[in-house]
Each structure stands twice: as C-alpha cells, then as structure tokens.
Amino acid sequence: MSIGLVHDPENIDHPATAGGASPLLVCLTLAALGCGGDKLDSADPCPGWAEPVAVNTVAFDGLDEASGLTSSLLHPGLMWTHNDDSDGDGQVFALSTGATIEGTFTLGGSEPEDWEAIAATGYRGESELIVGDIGDNDAVRDDITLFITPEPTVIEAEMTAPIVTRASFSLPDGPTDIEAMLVDPATGAVLLFTRNADRTDVYAVASLDDRDATPTLAASIDLNTAPYDGLGAVRAADVAADGSVVLRLSDGVVWLQGNGSAIDALDSDACVVPSPPETDGEGVAIIGSDLYFIGEGASPTLWFVQRSSG
Questions:
Q1: DSSP 246-258
Q2: Which residues, 6+ apart, have CB-to-CB distance to 225 below 8 Å?
Q3: Are 249 and 241 in contact (CB under 8 A)?
Q4: 87 — pLDDT class (breaks 50, 70, 90)
Q5: Cα torsion for 13, 16, 17, 22, to the nearest 10°?
Q6: How far apart are CA 239 and CA 35, in angstroms?
Q7: What is the rounded average pLDDT of the residues 263-272?
Q8: Cα–Cα distance, 235 to 254 (Å, whole number)
Q9: Nearest to residue 118, comparing CAs of 84, 142, 165, 86?
Q10: Alpha helices in the chain (DSSP H)
Q11: Contact 215, 228 (CB under 8 A)
C-alpha cells in the first residue's frame, strides 16, 4: 500500500534508502542497536523551528482519541499511533506524514486498560513497537504494562500480531498517572514520565528482558522553572538517535539537546519549540530533523514543525 507524503521527501533525511539496504539494518549499523529510527540531530543546543503547519485532518473513524505517536523504523514517512484506549480492541494505526491511515495493526489479546504512549526501538536487534498501558488518572493501578511486538515489515490494510509480550511493573512510589514514554537509544531503557503539574518524575525500566524488575527513579524535572513554568504537565515524548528529547506538555513544547543519552539530555537546558494550537495534544514524533504532533478528538489534525536551523 502506498504512503502519501505531503512534504518533499528530500527534506526528510531517511538514512535507510541507500543501496537498497534494509532500514533496520542501516539503523542498527549506525547506532549500535540503539537507534531511534530515522531521527537525526545536530550539535546546536537550541535549534530554530518554523511555525507549526497543519498537514491535514485524519479522516478515519477508528482514530477518535489519538494519544501516542512514534516514527516507524522500517517504513520512512510512516508513524504509529493509537487511541487513548480502554475499549479492548488493541489497535495501532499506521499513519502517513500526509495524515492518511495506511493500515490497522491489532495486538491480539492485549486487552488495553489505558493506552497512553507508543515507542519504536531497534535496541534488541529487531524493530519493535512498545505500547505503554501506563495511564492511571485516579492513581489506583497496582501495576502498569508494556506490550512489545515486532513492527510489521509490510504495511497492509489489516494486520495482526496474535502474540505480544507483556511486561508488567509496579512503580516504587505507588500508583501514579503516566502519559509519556520513550526508549533511551544509549541503553534501551524505557523512560516513563509522570503526569504532574509541578514536577515530572522519570522512571526507568532498565531491561524489558527482566520482568521482575522495579522501575527506578532516574530523573525529575521541576515544571515550575523556566521554560517549563506555565506549560502544564508532560503529555508526550520522543527521542532522537543522539538522545535529544522532545517533550509535549499541556500548553507547550520543549527540546532538550542530547549527546547520546536521553537521561543526560534531561539535564541540559530546555529550548522552547513553537507549539501547534491543538486541543489535548498527546502525541509527538521526530522524523528526520522535524516534528509531528497529533491531538485527541474525532478527525484530529496532524501538525508539522520543520527544523529551520541548528
């Protein structure tokens, strides 16, 4: 199935097209199994960004409460998204940069409770999608669950993974709501960002192979300090191959320059990114050097923010 791109593909740098090589193989070669797909970056601590552009509305009835968003490792110009899901269908949607749904991927038997985030990683040697069943608005869940499944190699209208891996964890400080997640390209650790108005605590799941592990507190960000003050809680996150992090907050967006590790990036100075005027934005993805955003609601708008310098 073709993927319609609204932007000039020459402006999106996908390293996986040279010589017909597999995108994942190029990714793994370049980033020692820790690559974040085709996400690129430079050494400028505060890049320049163009104003947000509305690509189009996503005219697809099945996507009516978009939450997570991440770029594909295997399919340039494609992203994965899902609903803020508690209805049990376990569906992930292949979304093009032209705002069209190219396929529906069902994680059989996943029985979602509160899906909030999705990430793609090649750290363990193959392209995997991790769906975070991590939401807990009332702070009552005994544990949270990550669903891990190989990323489809072929995009079709209807796709199914009959078996997915479940990894459930209890948070050391008790139940709390989490809506943002990424995979650190330096270590493969899954980083979970709590949704609090004054501070976001970042918990790390060091290894998906250790199902008995307890997430550890890896960092905290004071949201009452500049430039976070007034921007609300962390609602979404993504990471570049060099560890740079983008955080989507309730009322704004910040960029933290990386030098390999996402955890290290969280200690760097945050740079403000122009924020799309969307309602309840809960999805952000890095493709090439640019950013894509999606919000909740029926027929959501896909937004594009192009990196203009740095």
A1: EEEETTEEEEE--
A2: none
A3: no
A4: low
A5: -170
A6: 10
A7: 94
A8: 12
A9: 84
A10: 23-31, 262-265
A11: no
Residue for token pair 């060091």: 206
* H or E, element range at 182: strand 178-183
What is the C-alpha end-to-end distance of the chain, expressed in Å? 35
Distance CA 237, CA 246 (A): 6
Q: What are the beta bridge partners of residue 192?
A: 181, 203
- Given this model, what pLDDT does residue 279 score? 67
In the block, tokens 């940069």 appear at 97
Query: Residue 43: is its pLDDT beyond 60?
Result: no
At residue 135, what is the residue type? G
pLDDT per residue as tens digits for the range 5-22: 333 333 333 333 333 333
In this structure, the strands spanning 158-161 and 101-107 are parallel
Mean pLDDT value across residues 36-43: 46
Question: How far, in whole angstroms, is CA 283 from its chain's centroid?
Answer: 7
Q: Is 105 helix (H, G, I), strand (E, B) or coil?
A: strand
Per-residue pLDDT at 32 exceeds 80: no
3-state secondary structure of 164: coil
Measuring CA to CA, which residue among 58, 56, 88, 82 is closest to residue 69? 82
